[in-house]
């Protein structure tokens, strides 16, 4: 899904140029770069971006922020489609905020946080509104996105030593969230004890791996409800790891203060 916008008639501190997720990314060649700030994140598959005489691989759960007018090209690698989410933005505040990020021509995020991963799907429908008040809300959300980038970058600088624990957990959950997952299964993926892996994971993400699993399943359920209006609730439940539809409905209501049917009807 992709939404592109016209440049606002009124000068804005921050505004969205385009946004999308679950996008099947084709090859792109930009000799003069892009005219706006550009965030690109891999959801599944993989791609390579060539920039400043470097080839940077973007695997699942990795992303890059590009400064405007920086020449680059990127393309999928491997046999699987390269599914990405992206956000392009601009505005009068961008240059000062890029200084805050210490952004040179680009900034690579090796492990994208859950908050950044869920940001684009959650705001995409909110952004599809040209009302002046909605444009102000859009500016606030992009500011939040930049702060999440800064937070994620700082966290990454402190968690390289823990990547052997957190990365396998994140990858395992992304690949198997529709299946039964236990702490013991995650322990086999990390080769660390349940107690130690959970302590490291919670220190970095402020939740246990199984709490993150539930959060991930809820976000996937929300995506399915928004993008597949013909799917019955009983069909969505097992697709996101709930083989008891009643339990799925209870969990969804706990997270979003509405049943899946009510959420779909009034969103």
From TrEMBL:
Keyword Transcription: yes
Keywords: DNA-binding, Transcription, Transcription regulation
Coiled-coil residue windows: none
Keyword Cytoplasm in annotation: no
One Pfam family, short name: HTH_18
SUPFAM superfamilies assigned to the protein according to its UniProt record, in alphabetical order: Homeodomain-like, Regulatory protein AraC
InterPro entries: AraC-bd (IPR003313), Homeodomain-like_sf (IPR009057), HTH-like (IPR037923), HTH_AraC (IPR018060), Tscrpt_reg_AraC-type_HTH (IPR020449)
Single Gene Ontology MF annotation: sequence-specific DNA binding
Domain HTH araC/xylS-type: 167-266
Protein name per the record: Transcriptional regulator, AraC family
Higher taxonomy: Bacteria, Bacillati, Bacillota, Bacilli, Lactobacillales
